[in-house]
Amino acid sequence: MDNGIKLKQALDVSEVLSEGAEFHVDKESLGDYYGEELFFEGDYSSADEDEENITQQATPWNGSFDELRKEMQPISQLIYKRITKEGTGKWQSNNIRVTIEYNAFNEHELRPFDSSKLRKVPCRFILGAGDVLPGLDQAVQTMLVGEEAEFLISYKLLYGEVGCPPRIKPKADGLFVIKLISFVELETNVACANEPDPTERRSYVTAKETVAEIRKVAKESFQRGMLPNAIEKYKAAVNILHKCQLKDDAEQKEQEETLIALYTSLAVCYNRRQQPKAACNAVNEIRRLCDINQNAKALYQEGKALLKLGDYNKARVCLKRAKQLMPGDENIEATLKELHINTEKYRQEEKSIWTRAMGMATKKQEQSVDELKKFTDSVRGTINMFIGDAKCTTLPLPEHLSEQEIRILHELADEYKLKLTSYLNGNEKQYKFTK
């Protein structure tokens, strides 16, 4: 399902009620390279167009689904069908890329909960490849080109027993109104792209065509919020390009440009799925192919990933360079602001933790056994918190440590298999743990 549109700043309800509020949408949440069109509940173009859109896309059945089922023909135990316009041609099968338009309705609801028509972008996918809901895939397999039909599909082939609240209730059957616009028969390795046929690897021209089809499927999966499937397809496209043979420099240049775009898409997907380490790995692949300091999109994605990992200094370097390449970009500005807030918050929390743990602003060179034990226990507790936080890779330590306390830190580093390093902060020598 689609993710909601995120506001860049939270709204204060009291201010909204008294003064109103202006808000901005994070453009990145709308798609892969900013500006992709997604369908969101209640997003029906302008107010003047609402009535016309609702009329055109309104549910064709106002009664119960049990009553509708009696008006349809069963094509399986879980899918019922009623043809509203006959099509022509042959039946569809697997390994065919289809283009459809559809509206999907819940029972007793006027507006669709999903609609390619309201997105104004046709839905394209490969039959049998798992790119869409199983019920939608099986329904389209019964259609001819140009056919328009209504399908009542069991929840077992849609969103299951849990549903997808609040839009999809638990165990909710769905009414799909579908038009099959066209289809294209694909080479075998498009549907099974993870292992391209050996003969296909020899030709970049053939690989290029195959990758273009896979990218269309991956992009459609991304737009529909099916991120795991999008990642799988993008990785398959990368695999094909790496294994093809190149005949000249022109093909190599085009291959590298396509790989950069694919790895960028993977970084976007991984960041959206809260997998920052995987996003960094994807950006590292881009680094092998080009001067990343000239690639704002890759730097932006790496900066986002490093921010999530808690590596604030490196994140700041990436984001500031991205800002230089794309000045005024709202997403980069918003992420830099988030970085600043997180950095200040971390410093305050760090200061508070150490102040409470050690209960002193400065350290004495000579300390009693009880004081050192208290220091050891406090640091040990903080280390356990640090190890348990997968997002944090660095733990800065307080200033003004005594020689005894530094010795204890070395012992704890060995015990927990952490790296203890020193660095200069201004004229002050400080220490930090790293994983």
From TrEMBL:
It comes from the Eukaryota. GO terms for cellular component: cytoplasm. GO terms for biological process: piRNA processing; spermatogenesis. Keywords: Isomerase, Repeat, Rotamase, TPR repeat. Its EC number is 5.2.1.8. It holds the Pfam family FKBP_C. One of its GO terms (molecular function) is Hsp90 protein binding. Residues 95-184 form the PPIase FKBP-type domain. SUPFAM superfamilies: FKBP-like, TPR-like. The keyword Repressor does not apply. The keyword Repeat applies. Gene3D superfamilies: 3.10.50.40, Tetratricopeptide repeat domain (1.25.40.10). It catalyses: [protein]-peptidylproline (omega=180) = [protein]-peptidylproline (omega=0). TPR repeats lie at residues 296-329. InterPro entries: FKBP6/shu, PPIase_dom_sf, PPIase_FKBP_dom, TPR-like_helical_dom_sf, TPR_2, TPR_rpt. Belongs to the FKBP6 family. This is peptidylprolyl isomerase. It comes from Anopheles sinensis.
